[in-house]
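Q: Joint fold for the lines below.
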Amino acid sequence: MLYFRFPFSEDYNFVDENLDKNPVSFHSFDNLEILDFSGEIESISKDEILSAEILSDSLSSKLPLFEEEQQSDYQQKLLKVIDFIKENDLSKLVISRRKLVKYEGSPINLSRTFLNLCKAYPNAFVYFFIKDEKCWLGAFSELLGKFNKKTSEFETMSLAGTIPVHESWTSKEIEEQKPVTDFIKNILNAYSEKVELSETYDHLSGNIKHLRNDFKAQIVREDVEKIISELHPTPAVCGIPKDFCRKAIGKFEKDPRNFYAGYIRVENDDFVQYFVNLRCAEFFQDAALIYVGGGITAESSPEKEWRETELKAEAVLKNIDFS
Ligand SMILES: C=C(O[C@H]1C=CC=C(C(=O)O)[C@@H]1O)C(=O)O
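A: Joint structure:
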């Protein structure tokens, strides 16, 4: 099953798994796993979601053997990452961890958790799925791409840099977001004569904010999937050079990213949209793993980076319904 809600919409959707169409698919970070949801996109009411009442008790898998990375270990590792960034002259490298949430005997109401996330993040793409013994929920507003089938306009954004809502930007975040903008600009310029780029502005997300630029470009329909495969993973979730940074992530992160920092493709009559899968968590019968990361630069402070991941984890954590 899959429930989802588009950004700025009040309607909830599900996909009935009956037909040959594949309107929604989840792509893992490493692109090796694609989870398809086939059928028609149908609408579903809040009451129907509530009455289905899906609890963590009903999930088939328990959390496999897992050792959570502690603050001191994570910070030690980030010191090594910073050295690596300096040695290789990288502008940034995105490193992530998994925060463990044990239910301690009180099951989670996953349906209510989904609705809480929808309420808390009106500008986000919010989803909840259970399939092939996997269960994930997420809510985030970063667009990897949006293609308008009628006008052939392609939209995307560069989103990076994080600070608490009431703090002021420093050169660290500004320098962290720039490579994302440059990376996207270079790709779009190869596919379009006309690429529009907005000013940089603040993108609010609960207790934190990010730096953001929006792009618009006229493209041809046949290029959409090619552009997406060049864009993913952007330096907002990986780094540049892409393949070098992907390998470095594999070396520094002790657990796989799975669907975290991958993307979700959703197609309807008007658009094909691709949402970056951040602020997400994997749920098991007895515990959940919240996936969080951040862009590390030569200027990073390991302690601040740890705090940033804690703040990002809050985005999901505070909306979990312990029934
Ligand atoms: C990698 C994550 O966030 C990305 C998106 C916005 C800001 C980011 C940052 O400030 O590091 C990251 O690039 C995450 O939330 O796990």
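Q: Anything notable?
A: The first strand starts at residue 2 and ends at 5. The chain has one domain: 2-317.
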